Amino acid sequence: MTRRSRVGSRRRRASDKPGHSGFDQLPFYQLQNPYQPVELLSADQIESIHQASLVVLEDIGINFLLPEAREILKSAGAQVEPDGPRVRFDRGLIAQCLESAPNQFTLHARNPERSLKFGKNYLNISSVSSPPNASDLDRGRRSGSFEDYCNFLKLAQTLNIVHLTFGHPVEPLDIEPAVRHLHSTLSRVVLTDKPFSGYSLGRRRILDVIEMARIARGISEERLLTEPSLISNINANSPLQFDLPMLWGIIEMSSRNQAISITPFTLSGAMAPVTIAGALTQQNAEALAGIAFTQMVKPGAPVIYGGFTSNVDMKTGSPAFGTPENAKATLIGGQLARRYGIPYRSSNVNASNAADAQAVYESMMVTWAAVMGGANVIYHGCGWLEGGLTASFEKFIIDAEIMQMMAEFLRPVAVDNATLALEAIRDVGPGGHFFSTPHTLERYETAFYRPILSDWSNFETWSENGSIDATHRANAIYKELLQHYSPPALDAAIREELETFVARRVEEGGAPIT
Fold first, then answer.
1. What is the pLDDT of residues 351-371, one digit of tens each?
2. Which of 108, 275, 310, 499 has the most neighbouring CB atoms within 10 Å?
3. Nearest partner of 99 among 240, 268, 292, 334, judged by Cα
C-alpha cells in the first residue's frame, strides 16, 4: 500500500469516528513542512536588523515595570536604572541567553496522542484567541458568552486540523473576570483533549491554570517541571515595554519549565516605525529582551519567538492585517527566529468585518507567508475576524478548509515508477481519457484532496441545490458538527479533582485583576 493510500484510509476512518457524522476530514497528525523557507532578505540584511536591535537594547533599553523582574534582570547582569523601570542589555548577555533557549520542545496534552512538537520544521495550528465578540449568520455579532466559548471548543476538538487552543477562542464575558479562568480552563479540559494555554494576566491566575494543567494530565509537580504541559502568550506593551501581569506570567511559567511565546504587538505606523525594517528592528529588540528574560528565570525554559508586525491604515489609524507588509514581516520574522535557533510563531489574521472574500484573501496572504516563512505555530489559525475583535463560526470552518489545504500542500509529491504512470499513458494513447484505466480506478478514492467546504459541482447542479455560497455552507457545517459533537474521554477521578479545585478557588474569590 502506498503512503497516499494509507493516508486515504486514515482519512476515511477519521470521518467514521463518533461525533463526526460522516464528516470527511483529514486525520489528526503532527504537520511537518518539507520545504525550504523563503528568504526574503539577504543574510547581510538580517544581520543589519539584528545589529540595530542590539543598539536599541544597549542604548535605549526596555521598560520592565515589575520590580521583581528588574531584580532578576540585575542579578543576571542587565543594566537596571536605580530609580526607574528602564533596563539595558549588553549584547554579550543577549547572546548568552540565546544559547540556553531550546530549539525544540514538546508540549504535552492530557491525551498523549495529541502532544505537539514545536521547532525545526513542525507546524501546529491554533484556534483564534481572545476576541470579545462572537458572530454567525443566525444571530449576528454579539458579546462573547460561555455558550459561544464552549461551542468554539467543541469545534476545535472535532476539527482535526486544529492542534491546540491558544487563548480563549472567544471571551466568555458573562463570567466574572476573577473566576473566568477557572471555569474556562475546566471546560477546556472536559471538552477537548488537545494542548491549551493560560493567560498571563496576574500571578494567581496563571498559577491556577498551571495547577489545572497538572491535574488534567494526572502527573506530579516534579514531572510537570520536566514536561511542558501549558503554554502562554506574552505580548510586549509596544513600544519597548513589558507590563506587570505579563512579567508575572513569565516568572511563574518559565520557572516551572512551561512554554512561553514572546510576541511584540508592533503595528507599523502606530506602535512601531512606519518602515518595515524599523518595525522589525523594534519587534526583534522586544522579542530578544523577553526571550532573554525567560532564560534568566530558568535557563533552558521553552520559548517561542513571536512575530506580529503588521501596519495601520494611515487614513484612519485602524489596524490592517493580511496586507503585503504583514506578509513580508512574517517571512522576515521567520528568518530572524531561525537566526537564533528558536521556534517561530505567526498568525492567520484579517481586517474584514464579515466572513467574506476580503477575509479569505487577507487570510490566505498571511497564511502562505507563515507556512513559507517556516512558522512552527499559526496562532489565530481558525476563526479570526474584524482585526481580532470577533470570533466567527463561519470563518472557523472557512479557515479549517484553508489550513487543511495547506496541510495537503505540505505532503511531498511521490515520484516513482507507479506515480509516473507510463503504462497508463501508453494504454490510453493519443485522444483517450484516463477515467477508466486501472491506474485511475486503483487510486481515485484517495488521489486528490477532498474539501470540507468547497463545492466543485457545475453551475446547474449548484443552482438546483439552492445556489448556496461558501459562507452559508460554513454556517450549516459548523451547526452540524456541534450537533454531533462527542466529548473526549476523561478519567472520572481527574474530573472530580479538577471540579473540587475550581469550587475551592471560586469560593476563595478566584484571582484579583491586578
1. 999 999 999 999 999 999 999
2. 310
3. 292
